[in-house]
Amino acid sequence: MYHAVMTNEKFQRERFTNRPRHALNCEGFDFQEAIAEEIGCKPHVLSHGSLTSPLLFGPLTGYRFRLEGPGAWSGAADAIRAANAI
To answer: How far is residue 22's CA from residue 67's CA, in Å, rounded to a whole number?
Structure first.
């Protein structure tokens, strides 16, 4: 855990401005994926058949984290397809 925190801190210093005002900057997608992995709701992209393409190349919607894990929603796949159709 310590190593992960230190690695992340080094990345943050290199990537963003090292000022107190910018102390909480992070990459949105990376942050979402890390939190989803901790919770257990990160989607296994290749196991969703027809949703593979929308999950990889479509908009980054929150529905993707409702496909599996705690709080899974049966309408998530349809919501992802609808968001991708726009």
So the answer is: 33
CA distance 28 to 53: 21
CB of 64 closer than 8 Å to CB of 43: yes
pTM of the full structure: 0.70
Which residues does 62 contact at the CB level (< 8 Å), separation at least 6?
Answer: none
Q: Write the pLDDT tens digit of every residue in 7-65.
A: 877 877 777 777 776 666 777 888 888 899 999 999 999 999 999 999 999 898 999 99
Largest pairwise CA distance in the chain = 45
**Residue 3 to residue 11: CA distance in whole angstroms:** 12
